[in-house]
Amino acid sequence: MSKHAATNTRPRPVFIEEEQVKQLLDWNEARYVIEQAFVSVSNQARDQAARFSDQPVSSQPARTFVQAEGGVLLCMPGFVGQHRLTSGSSERFSTLACKLITGFRKNASIGLPSINGEVFVFNSTTGKLEAIVEANHLTGIRTATASLVATDHLFLRPARARTPDGTVSIQLGIVGCGFQGMMHAIGFVRTQAALARVRVIRLWNRTPGRATQLKDILTEEAKKTDSNYSVFVCDTVEDCCRDCDVIVTATGSSEPLVYRSFLKPNVHINAVGAGEYHHAELAQDVYDKCQVYIDHQEGARKELATLRSTIVGEVGEVILRENRAEEDSLLPKQGGISVFQSLGMATEDVTVGRLIYEKYLKAQDCSD
């Protein structure tokens, strides 16, 4: 537990604004705490006798929506117990937090973001509010990082294990070049050393100008990261998906965009967008042939109730079973299509919020 959490001497909660979040939040550190969030949910879902005592546990109720005049308030509370912030660390944290998000579509007409969010981090022993973290950038990274974690454990790790030097390279397709499409593309670029070298990125957006803007951003990212990948803006979704190893769909489409004929036999898809329902972007002929993985069963029962496909299990359960001979593997069949159906969950915000708060405290201690 944080030394500040133990003494609880701060007179008022700290406020960590967006620019500070951008400076404090590292992609690879976020990747580890998102893994902890996944594992905590799956470990908690096990029968008590089958839980792993060395792994975190969690509690998160269903998210709630409050309708307001002109907008909506989304509430996502959660608790993650005995989680780590860095791999190999002996220090454990128990974190209680709640993310509040407002969505007001008309804000754009007055020059304000249509979506705004904050994560409230509480002392898990006393319940005292310790920090308020602006959460727009946080949400972007945590959602993209959830896809990175799923891609790694479901697709890239098995691929690396089959290569002599333990490395792989990928062609990446981004269907939808808005904020989440951008964050996913940057995330794959920033984590190449740990996951896979990106050799090609293909982009599609309903309005081509947005894809061109993302191409410019990724060209600058290549310079910053000393990367050697090519970026193409595609006229069609089919062209965007062609020959891709990993695909991200991040649109608001309520109609199918990606069909089986667009895909290689062996491909991983991160389905992130949410139109009328969470599984609108992929055609039924994709779902007929793929294996679907989710972040949490409770959310899937509600938000994927009409999905007609094989849901294999939670990504956290895949991680829990890795390197445990007594546990049957849940990995996808080699040479097939795997889909991570990303719903988002409070535990992700809980662990990322704690990471940012602890890094903020360390930065303050260093400056004192």
UniProtKB/TrEMBL annotation:
The molecular function terms in GO held by this entry are: hormone binding; pyrroline-2-carboxylate reductase activity; thiomorpholine-carboxylate dehydrogenase activity
Q: Write down the EC number.
A: 1.5.1.1, 1.5.1.25
**UniProt name for this protein:** Ketimine reductase mu-crystallin
Family matches, as Pfam families: OCD_Mu_crystall
Catalytic activity entry: (S)-cystathionine ketimine + NADH + 2 H(+) = (3R,5S)-2,3,5,6,7-pentahydro-1,4-thiazepine-3,5-dicarboxylate + NAD(+); Delta(2)-thiazoline-2-carboxylate + NADPH + 2 H(+) = L-thiazolidine-2-carboxylate + NADP(+); (3R)-1,4-thiomorpholine-3-carboxylate + NAD(+) = 3,4-dehydrothiomorpholine-3-carboxylate + NADH + 2 H(+); L-proline + NAD(+) = 1-pyrroline-2-carboxylate + NADH + H(+)
- Which family does the record assign? Belongs to the ornithine cyclodeaminase/mu-crystallin family.
Signal peptide range equals none
Say which species the protein is native to: Anopheles christyi
Q: Write down the InterPro entries for this protein, in alphabetical order.
A: NAD(P)-bd_dom_sf (IPR036291), ODC_Mu_crystall (IPR003462), ODC_N (IPR023401)
The entry's cellular-component GO terms read: cytoplasm
* Top-level lineage group: Eukaryota
| Subunit field text | Homodimer. Binds the thyroid hormone triiodothyronine (T3); T3 binding inhibits enzymatic activity.
